[in-house]
Amino acid sequence: MHLWNNAKSLSFRKLSSKNLIAMDGTPAPSGESAQNRLYIKRGHVVNHDGMQQADIYIEDGSIRYVGSGADFVVPGGCRTIDATGKMIIPGGIDPHTHFQLEFGGTVAVDDFYQGTKAAVAGGTTTVIDFVIPKKGESLLEAYDTWRARADTKVVCDYGLHVAITWWSKSVRDEMKILCQERGVNSFKCFMAYKGLFQVTDSELYEIFETCKELGAVAQVHAENGDVIAKNVQKLLAAGVTGPEGHELSRTEEVEAEAVNRACVIAHQTKTPLYVTRVTSKLAAEQVSQARRRGLLVYGETLASSLGCSLTNVKPNTLAYYVTSPPIRPDPETPRHLMKFLALDDLQTTGSDNCTFNKNQKELGLGDFTKIPNGVNGVEDRMSVVWEKGVQTGLIDPQRFVAITSTNAAKIFNIYPRKGRIAPGSDADVLIWDPQAVRTISASTHHQACDFNIFEGMKCHGVPEYVIVHGRVCVENGLLRVAEGQGSFLETPINPPFVYDALNGITNRNGDDKEARNGLQNLDLNQKHDVPDSYALPDKYVPGPALSIISGDSAVSTPHSARGHRPDGTKDMQQSTFSISEEMDTSGNRACIRVKNPPGGKSSGFW
Q: Whole-angstrom Cα distance, residue 47 to residue 261?
């Protein structure tokens, strides 16, 4: 039997029964609407820098209250969810997707509807996709193309990075327009794909300088494209034409050399650098060493590299795993990469979701250079990271939140709107069951591709509820989304987390405790026994209520904690308690004011 929430509330845009589906594909009743008031009680709120037992109140797509139930009166007409024994965590942010991408003479099968729907099903509530112009194409025209593909289809918020695939004064000028007028703050350069996307070192230097001038984040796909081109020639000449040639042509040191070179060029230009999709131990070591030398470098690894190695992949399916840089054959690579995440040498986890069906992958069976590059991951990323990180004892839930959500939000300047459970943040929230188990399979996933590289993987850690802008989109195995319910998310320039560090300013936000892994006395050189499913402490002292107090998004804890109120069932209609908004002269929200709260004193928080 399929249960659907009947609470009266705001309606989905473009609402139709065909867009509302259960996890098994069963249509929802027509007329379904999203609620605008939601109360979550008795959960364990996990942010990157702390954990507390707390209740959460959500209204009109925003988190309005986080704290003890004893300090809050539940409004009338508000749906309540009991999160006892569950974690309440920020929705995942996938900083690396490629939906509907044209590549290798074909097109990725996940478009922005299918891809973001799958993302939400797995607990990711924000994605950042890549605009990839063809050589000679206007960046602005390519940007407009991506917006046209996405705006009417996305079911969660999305942002855009823009790739620099060629270099000229006009490209430089368009980068400035993208930063100042189009909500873009990051640009990616390819050091591989010679003759297609690859830029030279000299161009890389100038692009980095331009990023620094604009207050943008420079990104690289780091592989030595010239070496790869030579290796490909040799392999094909030697008769190595099958998919095994892909990894042989772009070995770990080919990736690591490019990472080191990018770090050196970024250092010479004094530009912050974000290294995308680090897939090998050697490459991660280059990022680690650069950071220890004081370079401002951030590293991303992928669900595919954390959840897979090529060791046990059957030769006749190897083509389905082709992506660049490759998934590595060493079975220890996933554990090594998770250790780098635990130690803060790598900061984020993406999916690089770029999906093709089997018949598309098989276009290159006789010539590995013609296999479309890309694999799935946007739906399974959160559970794979939990399984390989928390479940194995290498990271704790706080670090999990950091590497799946908060760090990406900070680097791309959407924090604390995204990536945090706090008043004023968007109500992109997961109720995460650390003891639930699911088995990944193409037969049950929501992506358009007809295979799954994680097929058969058993994952502990499942989102029981996924809440997107206050709408319950996943509940008890049911997925409810509508095309176009998401929005474009601008990423402002000069992200403080990046540029404050560049300028020697530390800990601007009062909430940050420079949290790393959170696990004490963890020896990452040792293998760890797999524990039971992550167990919450038997008893928590309820944490204090939180409120936004400044435009700089500093978070304070101004209220003293009192005992957790058993049910929090008092009706707002039976009290004089109210929440209202005050606007500044420009019409922007300046203050949320609480009138007559329990305790009697009105308060406002900016």
A: 35
What stretch of H or E contains 419?
A: none
CA distance 67 to 597: 13
Residues 6+ apart with CB under 8 A from 199: 164, 165, 166, 167, 189, 190, 191, 207
HSE-CB for 530 with a 13 A CA cutoff = 8
Q: Give the C-alpha distances (Å, rounded to integers) separating 141 from 132, 135, 138.
A: 11, 12, 5
Contact 59, 470 (CB under 8 A): yes
Q: Looking up tokens 């604390």, which residue turns up?
A: 416
DSSP collapsed to 3 states, 440-498:
CCCCCCCCCCCCCCCCCCEEEEEEEEEEECCEEEEECCEEECCCCCCCECCCCCCCHHH
Distance from C-alpha of 378 to C-alpha of 94, rounded to nearest angstrom: 7
**Residue for token pair 């999916």:** 351
Residue 546 vs residues 176, 313, 553: alpha-carbon distances, Å: 37, 48, 12
Q: What is the pLDDT of residues 458-471, one digit of tens each?
A: 999 999 999 999 99
Whole-angstrom Cα distance, residue 63 to residue 321?
Answer: 40
Q: Position of tokens 């009138």?
A: 595
For 93, the enclosing helix (H) or strand (E) is strand 92-97
DSSP string of 12-72, one letter each residue: PTT--GGGBB-TTSPBPPTT----SEEEEEEEEEEETTEEEEEEEEEETTEEEEEE-GGG-
CA 347 to chain CA centroid, Å, is 11
Burial class (CB in 10 A: 0-12, 13-18, 19+), 368: buried
List the domain boundaries for the chain.
Answer: 89-503
What lies within 8 Å, CB to CB, of 25 at 6+ separation is: none
Window from 146-160, 164-178, 534-548, 584-598 with minimum mean pLDDT: 584-598
- pLDDT tens digits, one per residue of 512-570: 455 455 554 455 455 544 444 455 554 444 444 443 322 333 322 222 222 333 334 33
Output the CATH code of domain 89-503: 3.20.20.140
Question: What is the DSSP code string of 198-260?
Answer: B--HHHHHHHHHHHHHHTPEEEEE---HHHHHHHHHHHHHTT--STHHHHHHS-HHHHHHHHH
SS3 599: coil
